[in-house]
C-alpha cells in the first residue's frame, strides 16, 4: 500500500508540473491538432487511460510543439482506426502489429520494457489457469470437454500464445473444448474463472500478477500449469504456460511524418525507468525495436493474420504463376474447337453431298433402267463401263458379263462398231449410226447407234454414252 501511495504522489507531482508549464506557455499549444496514440485497452478504457496518459504527457513535454493524447481501443477497433487514419501512433500487442505492418505499412519505432515482480522484461508470456480446487483438472489435457474463456481471438498474450501451445499438444480448442468464449478484457476472464462461470481461461502472465498485487485476486486460488514449449531459455520467476514473445511495440502509422516519429522514438528510448510515465505504465521505459520474428512464427503456425491463407492455392495464385501456359492452353482450346467445328461442318456437308449424289445416282439409274433403248457407257478404248437391263435383253448377257468387255464384240461388224466409238470421242457425238447387234443366241437386231461424250468437272472426257434403238427401215 505504501509503494502505491508513493507512485500516485509522483504522478500527481508530474501532472501538477505539466499544468504549471501549460499555464506559462499557453493553453493553445498543439491542442488544435493533437497527436493521437491508439492503445489496445486490454483491461478496459479507464485502466488504459490511467496507465498510458502520463506517457502522452511525457511526450508533450519532450516535444513542446505537439500535444499527445491517448485513444483507448478495444480489439475490434484497432484495424479500422489505423485504416481510416484516426490515430498517428499505435500501441498494441505484437500480433496486431505484425498484421498492421502487413496490411497498412505500420512501422515499429520502440519496444516496451515491462515491469513484473520488480524486474524489467522486453518479452512477455501467457498463462492457462483454473481454480486450484478443481480436482477434475490436473493437467492441460484434462481441459478437453471443458469450457474455456479468453480475451479476444486477436489477443497474443491472452489467446494466441496459449492456442499455439495447445495445438502443439494435440488439442484443438475450437473442436475439443465444450465451449470457447471471448469476453473482451483480461480482468473479466480472470473473474469468470474465479467465479466458476467457466472451467479455465487464459490471460497475460503479468496481468495475472498485477491483479494479485492490486488485491483483486489471490494467486493461491488458482493453478497455472508450466507445460510450455520454451526450452534452453531463461524463464521468468512467475507462473507462465507459454514461451515468451517480444513486448508491445510503439509503431507509427503510414502517414505519420518520419520527423515526428523520430522525435517520439528518441523520447521514448530516453525515458528514465523511474519517471512518472514509466511508473504509471508499470514499465522500465522503452528500448530499441526488437525482432518480431517469433511472433511471425507463431502466427504462421496457427495460420492466422498475414498467414491465414498459408498453404492455400487460390485461382489468382495459379494465374499469376502459370498465366503463359494458361493463355496458351486457352488459345489452343479455341483453335482445336474451331477445327473441330469446321471438320464437323465439313463432314456434315460431305454426308449431305453423298446422300445427294446417291439420290442422283438412284434417280439416274432409275431413268436408265426405265429406258426402252439399250444404253451403254464405255471409255475411249471401247471398254463397256455400265449397261441397262434392255442391253442385257438384246445381247442375252448379264450386266456383270457385259461390264469390262469390248463394245464392238456385240455387233456383226466389229470394225464398224469400233469406228463409231472412235468417231464419238473425236467429234463429241455420233447420230443415227446403223449397226447390227447380235445376241448370245445368234439373234440379230438392226439398231440405230447414237453416242455422246460426257465430261468431268475439269472438262476432261470421262467416257461415252450411247443408245441403240431398233432400227426401222422405211
Overview of the molecule:
By secondary structure, the protein is of the alpha+beta class. Helices cover 43% and strands 22% of the residues. Strands 1, 2, 3, 4, 5, 13 and 14 form a seven-stranded mixed sheet that branches. The protein has a five-stranded mixed sheet with strand order 9-8-10-7-11. Strand 1, helix 2 and strand 2 form a beta-alpha-beta unit. 33% of the residues are buried.
Number of strands: 19
Low-confidence stretches: 1-7, 13-30
Kindly report the oligomeric state of this protein. single chain
Instruction: State Rg.
Output: 52 Å
What's the structural blueprint in terms of helices and strands?
Layout: H1 2-25, E1 35-40, H2 45-62, E2 68-73, H3 78-83, E3 89-91, H4 94-104, E4 107-116, E5 119-121, E6 123-124, E7 126-131, E8 147-150, H5 156-168, H6 173-176, E9 179-182, H7 186-194, E10 200-204, H8 205-213, E11 222-223, E12 245-246, E13 249-252, H9 258-269, H10 276-280, E14 283-287, H11 293-302, H12 315-370, E15 374-378, E16 384-387, H13 389-395, H14 399-402, H15 414-427, E17 429-438, E18 444-455, E19 461-470
Parallel strand pairs: 1-2, 1-3, 8-9, 8-10
Antiparallel strand pairs: 3-13, 4-5, 4-13, 4-14, 6-12, 7-10, 7-11, 15-16, 15-19, 17-18, 18-19
Helix pairs in contact: 5-11
List keywords for this structure.
474 residues; alpha+beta; five-stranded mixed β-sheet; 15 helices; 43% helix; 22% strand; disordered N terminus
